[in-house]
Structure formats: structure tokens, C-alpha cells
Write the C-alpha cells for this entry.
Amino acid sequence: MKNTTPLTFKVKFPSNADYIPPIRKFVSEVLLVEHFNSKFSFRSEVIVDEICYNAVSYGSHSMDATVDLICSVFSDRVEFQINDEGGTHEHMDRLKKVIEKEDDAELDVKQSRSDKGLGLEIVKMLSAKVNLKIKKDNVTSIQVIKHREDA
Amino acid sequence: MESQIELEYEDIKGWTSAKMVRFIGDLDATNVETVLERICTLFKDGFINIVADFSKLRYVNSTGLGILLHFSKSAKEKGGSFKIANVNENVYEIIEIIGATSLLEIYDDVNEAVAALK
Amino acid sequence: MNVLKMEVLESDFGPDVAIWRIEGELDASSIKAINQHFNKILEGSRFHAIAEMSKVTHISSAAVGELMGCRQMLAERGGDLVFVGLNLDLKTKLNHLGAIKIFKFHNDLRTAINQYAWETHLKPEKVWLSFPSELNLVPPVRQLVSQIARQKGYGERDSFRIETIVDEVCNNAVEHGIPDKLRDIELFLKIDRKKIEIEVVNLSDPKKLNSLKAISKSILGTNEKKLERGRGLSLIKMLSNDLAIDFSGKGTTVHVTKLRED
């Protein structure tokens, strides 16, 4: 991987789904401006959407909770990092299971309710790497790396 | 508040129980409620066969896909169907990744979808 | 059969919002319990209630009718009864009963409480963005802010004006800022139901600082007609309700307030 200094964008927003559509479109537009192709930018938009939605839905439920999104754009890849204030133990366990699961061949799609959350599975399929870190004070950090596809 | 989605309706010739619905915009977590309300109203009004034209649907996420699967299931339970046509490449890829291509009825264009109505 | 359980709690937000937790099956036999618990909500001058229903497994038309009556009583006091956490199948059922046009639905308690705070208490929401000082990044930034405004219910016209304000402020920050692509520009947004405040901070280019100060002094004063430069700032001033520029410290801070008009 090339480690030239990336262009970095950071957004801190309220843990509220209202902010997700503008933010995912922002990331998509930025990637087009930085000469990634439209397919890459669409896939990245989906990644950002799903990781933000996960953070908002299952991260901290305090009234003033916020979510941090950091995008680092390198010449050959983009790295996303999303931090939330941490959810319940149940949510953390579920996150770990999804991220650490190796066999993605069978998604439980027959559970057709939208609240079942297939979002992180989609993120794994669209990216090269997904890491989960649980920092002190329960801050949950998900990192996603997506390589440029037309390089 | 929701990100923008519009639904346009058209009758389908020869079918009193079917409606063509054009989805315009993005389908995501912020507007699934609105879409749920509108499609359920169609079901309630007797339009149990829906042909969804996705030619102007730019974007869908996992929540949006969840609601499409729900529509498909609901329509079948009523003896009807929820058919999707004109899916763009990007949206199709997301449906494919999630493994829903076998669970949704997807057609290349609206005419094919209408021809498949029973 | 799932046994019905109900309790009424105070919310984290304050005493005027009640949380009504409901679990199990709601049908004709639940009417008495609904009324008993609703009376607890009406005590203590509460006029807004959030029904947390993620563990509700069934709702009959009789129960829906009773809840509609509860909502009507709160509405007469200027309040509301909203539903949280209902699963898709139950929402579909409520749609068939016509209830979906009457009740508001939220995915979780926090969203419901924050929506109440936004609408009733003008609670502001804040966004912070940091981005590299590059001109080609200004369009995505201005569209981000404009779309946030739209998403929060501002009209098309207001959102367009906000987009123009952000465009001009950020263009200035890039053009007059220090020519170092590693120095980021910071944008702070504070938005409530009635106004939006935008603050952009950048590190100023010392070579341009004096002319910047002169232009902004002109614009914030009365001498605009003779101005040859600074049309962007003039435009911001015309589109907004308040414009302040601060050159103290190493950076330039432009603070704009725009009241919602539509």
C-alpha cells in the first residue's frame, strides 16, 4: 500500500440518522473530485451509509451522543474510521461476530425485516478490510479500507 | 426528516389489481417509513400487484432493501407480486451482494415485468 | 400469548415528556390498562408521550382506536403521542387501519425525544467538519451544508441561500488562507428549527491579512458601493442576518447567522 500523506476529512455529527444522507453524498462527491471513478464512489457511499447507520442505531443512546467519521483519501485507497460512544454489550458482541466471521457466503437475507441489520455484511463485501476496536470508555471504532479498483 | 424520494404512479392497462410505481431518488433509512405507507396504501386499495420502475432510483442501502423484501413478502401473502424493473448497475450490485436477487423478482424493463403478471 | 405489561416513566429530557413502555399484546382487553396508564401521563401536566413499543407483539383495531383517543387528548393540550420501535409487520397493520397517517413513528427513544426537543424546545444540533484547503472541495462542502438544512426541514430557497453563503465563505477561506494544503479549514454548524449559524475558521496568509481586514471593514461598514473587491462578502451579508469576521489570533473566523424564512 502506498503511504503518501492522505487528504483527510473529519466530520462530527449528532447521533441522528437525519445527517447520514448528506454525509454519505459528501463523501461520494469528494471521492469523485479526487478522481476515483463513479462506481468506487457509489460503493464508498454505501459503506459510509451503513457504518454511520450502525453507529447511530446501536452506538450510545445518550441524548447528546455524537458520531465521528474520518476519511483518509490516499492515491490508491480510501480509509474510513467511525467512532461512536459505544452501545450495549449485546450490540458489541453482535458487531464482533459480524466483523470476525470469515464465511460471508450466506447472508441471512430471508430475515427480511429491515431492522435485522445486514449493513455491516455489505460493508465487508465492498471493502478490503474491516477492523473493530473497542477503546477505553467504551468508544467503538470501526475502520474500513477500500482499495482503488481501477488502478 | 427524510432524504428525498418521490413515488409516481401509473395504471397498468388491462390490470385493475396492478399499479406501476416509479421510484425517484434515494431509498434509505430516512424515508422507508414514507415508502412503506404509500405502498401499503396501494395494497389496501386492492393493488396487490406492483411493478416498481427503478430507472430513476439512484441509491439503495440495506434498510431500503429490507423494505423491498418486506413488500415482496406482503404482496405474495395477498396473492399478488412486487416486481422490480430497470435496476441500475450500482443498485443491482447491492441487491446481489446481499443475496436478494433470488428473493426479489427483477426484470430488465417494465414491459417484461408487466408481461410476467399473472 | 404474550402478557401485557405497561409502565409510565419520566424521560431523560424532562418532566413534560412521558415514556410509556408497552410490551405484549394490545387488544380489546387492554383498554382498561391503556386508560389507567394514560391517566398517569395526564397527571403532572405532561402533554407529550412517547410509546415505546419494540416489545409489542400484536395490536388490535380496538387498541388502536383507544390510543387514537389518547393522542387526541394530548393534541388538545398542544402535545402528541408518538410510537417508537414498532416492527414492520405491525406498522403495516397500522397502515391498513389508517393509523399511520395519524401517529408519528420513530426507530428509537432518543430519536423521538430529540425530535420533540427540536420542535418544541428549539434544541440546536451541531456539526463540525474539517477539510483540506482546496478549492475543488468547496462544492461538496457547500452541498453538504445545504443538504443538512434540507434534511432538517429548511425549504429549497433557504437551503440554496445557505449553500451560497457557505460557498463564498469557504472560497474566501481557501483563497486568502495560508497556501499550505496540509492546513485544514474548519466549519462549525449550529442549526435549530429557526436559524442556522455557520462558522468557518482558517489560518490566514499573513501577506493577505491587511487587505482582508480593509475589505471586511468596508463591507461591515457602509461603504459598499465603492468596493471593487469583496463581492463575495457583500453577497454573504445580503443573504444573511448577521455577519462577523474576527482576525484575532492566527486565524480568520467568519461567523454567519441566517434566520429561517420559509
Notes: Chain A has four helices and five strands. The first helix of chain A runs from residue 20 to 33. Confidence is low (pLDDT under 50) at residues 111-116 of chain A.
